[in-house]
Amino acid sequence: MKILSKIIVNEWVKAFIGAFLVLIVITTAADILSGFLRGKDGEYVITYYLIKMPDFLSKIIPASCLLATLFSLNNLKNHSELIAILATGFSTKKIISIILGLCFVVSFIQFIIVSFLVPLSNKLKLDFDEKREYAKVEKSGIQTSSLDTGKVWYKSKTYFASFSGFDRKNNELKNLSLYFFSPSFKGSKIIFAKTARYIEGDIWIVQDGVSYSKLENNEFPVPIKFDQISLNLNEVPDDFKKFESEVRTLNIFSLSKFINRMEETGISVSEYKILFYEKWTLSFICFIFALISLPSLYSPNRRSSSFGKNVIFTLMFSLGFWLLYTSSLALGVSGKLPTFWAPNLVPFFFVIYIVATFYKHRRL
Length: 364
Description:
By secondary structure, this protein is α+β, with helices and mostly antiparallel strands. The chain is built from 9 helices and 7 strands, in the order H-H-H-H-E-E-E-E-E-E-E-H-H-H-H-H. The chain has 2 domains: about 1-135 and about 265-360, no CATH class; about 155-235, no CATH class. About 60% of the residues lie in helices and about 15% in strands. The protein starts with a helix and ends with a helix. Strands 1, 2, 3, 4, 5, 6 and 7 form a 7-stranded antiparallel sheet that branches. A hairpin with a 4-residue loop joins strand 3 and strand 4. Helix 6 packs antiparallel against helix 7 and helix 8 runs antiparallel to helix 9 (about 340-360).
C-alpha cells in the first residue's frame, strides 16, 4: 500500500509543479507584455512585476491544485494504473485522503502568502508608487505612519496630527489629536477630540474635546473643554485615501488588532472583516480546486478525459469561480451580504457539490 500511495503522491506533485511553472510563465509573459504595451519603461515593468508576484501566486496556486488533480488522475487512467490500484483494494477514499494531505501542505503555503507576503507586497507597491510620484511632482497628499502603532500620524503645514480611524461614510476622523506649532517651531496649541467631521472647503467640526493654548508663553497650560468647535484644517477626505490603502498592508494578526480598534471607535468595519475572512478563504480554496475534479476518479476505466478537455474545464471553472467570488465580495462590501458569507458563500456551494458527488460514489 505504501508503494501505491507513493505512486499517487508522485503523480500529483509532478502535475502540480508542472502546472505551477506553466502558469508562472504565462502570467509573467502576459504581465510584462502588458506593461510594455502601456508604454512603461523596462525597469518599471520588471520591478512592478516582482512586487506583485505574491498576489499572482495566490491565484496561481489554487489553479495548480486543480490541474494537479486533473492531470495526475488522467495520466493514471491513460496507463490503466488507476484501475489497477483500485483493483488491489486501494479505495477512492484513500486516494482522496492522500490528495487532501497534499492540499493541506499547499494550503499552508497559500496561507503564508496571502496573510503575510501579499500585505508586504501591497506596502512595497505603495512605497514604489510614491517614489515615482515624488520624482515627477511634489506630493500633495498627506504622509502617514504605519497602522501598526495604533494611531496614524501625519504632518501638515502648521501642525502634527494623529487619529485612530477614518470613517469614510461620514467623513469623520476618530480620536483626533492636533499639535500646533508657531513659525519658530515652538508648540503653541494642543487639541484632543473624540471626532472631527468634514463640512466643506477646509472646515471641520471638532466635537467632544479639550484644548491647551498659549503653550509658547512658558505658562502652565489650562485645559478648556468644548462640545463643538469649528477648525480650519488643510486636509480634505480625499487626502485620507491612503489610510484605506494601508489597511491592505497589514498582515493577518495586525489586521485583527486593527479591526478591534476600529470597532471601539464605532466605525463600520464590514469591509475590513471581509478582508480578514478572505485570507482564510483563499487558503481553503486550494482544497476546493483540488477536489472539484474528483469525478474522473469515479470512472477509472474510461479514457474520455483528454488533455484538451482538461484545459477547457480548468479555464471555464477558474473564470467562473473567480467571477462569482468577486461578485460575492462586492455584495458584501455594499452590505447586501453578511461579512462572513461574502468571501465564503461561493466556496460553500462548491463544497456542497463536492460532498454530494462523494456521497453518490461513496461505495467505490
